[in-house]
Design goal:
By secondary structure, the chain is an all-alpha fold. The chain has helices spanning about 1-10, 20-50, 65-75, 75-100, 100-130. α1 packs antiparallel against α2 and α4 (about 75-100) runs antiparallel to α5 (about 100-130).
């Protein structure tokens, strides 16, 4: 129901303040993810049996106390753990002896966000079938 109201409100986005439109986009994305993950979990339970449990994708992201808490522990938990194990930890361990602890962590964080951005561009390309224009990873707030 909430998703329908949000989509209907897009008709009036030219008359709304940009902050309200941004909140609508964020709410739309969160509710669409939550619905998609719930339907996926239902399909997994139907095909594999209802005693099979899958890992939750979201952990109440609205209750995050910081960006680190949001991205690392509450939003898209499976993706965060995959990126942590395959990108962040190897880069951090490889560069910490050379750069030191803090700079090694900073480099690992930067590389992880670059890989995540490239993955988002790739997913956008496969869904929309349009060559990447980097709008997904580097969008200007005035374009909204």
């Amino acid at each position: 129901m909430i998703l329908i109201v949000i989509v209907h409100a897009y008709q009036y986005k030219d008359n709304l303040h940009w902050t309200v439109v941004r909140v609508l986009y964020i709410s739309h994305m969160y509710n669409a993810f939550e619905l998609g993950f719930a339907l996926s979990a239902l399909m997994v339970n139907v095909f594999l049996g209802f005693d099979f449990q899958i890992e939750p994708q979201l952990n109440e992201p609205c209750l995050a106390t910081s960006l680190q808490d949001f991205w690392g522990r509450r939003w898209n938990i499976v993706s965060s753990s995959i990126l942590r194990d395959t990108v962040y930890n190897p880069v951090r361990m490889m560069w910490m002896p050379t750069l030191g602890r803090l700079r090694g962590q900073m480099l690992a964080t930067f590389v992880t966000f670059v890989v995540s951005g490239l993955m988002h561009e790739l997913m956008f390309y496969y869904v929309m079938r349009v060559r990447p224009t980097w709008e997904v990873t580097a969008r200007n707030e005035n374009d909204i």
